[in-house]
Amino acid sequence: MRPARHPEVGDITLTGVLAALSDPIRVGVVRVLADGSERGWGEFQAPVAKSTLSHHLRVLRDAGLTRTRQEGTRCFVVLRGGELRDRFPGLLEAVLAAAEEEDLGRQVALKPAPGIT
């Protein structure tokens, strides 16, 4: 696997961020990551194929919303919350508040921990 490419903060564009957030699955991923925790790709539960979820995660990364880290064969993703707040103050909070109000992206969740039902 080749290392993931991430745009520098100054290269993140408003139109790129908004385009990445134009899909409910991607909004759902951002909502899950909004707590600041790093998550393994396999922890996400979404009503799409794994390849489609991978595509959504790549779109978020390419737009500068997330950062991906590889560890062996596993990939982990984290929201670039601080960097996004510095680049576009208030945008992330507004998007998350609107998504909460509209219940947008609710179909994306974290898989239950093993042994928990």
TrEMBL record:
Gene Ontology terms for molecular function: DNA binding; DNA-binding transcription factor activity
Matching CDD domains: HTH_ARSR
Superkingdom in the source lineage: Bacteria
Alphabetic keyword roster: DNA-binding, Transcription, Transcription regulation
Domain HTH arsR-type: 6-103
Presence of the UniProt keyword Transcription in the record: yes
PANTHER family linked to this entry: TRANSCRIPTIONAL REGULATOR, ARSR FAMILY, TRANSCRIPTIONAL REGULATORY PROTEIN
Protein name in the entry: Transcriptional regulator
Native source organism of the sequence: Sphaerisporangium melleum
Lineage: Bacteria, Bacillati, Actinomycetota, Actinomycetes, Streptosporangiales
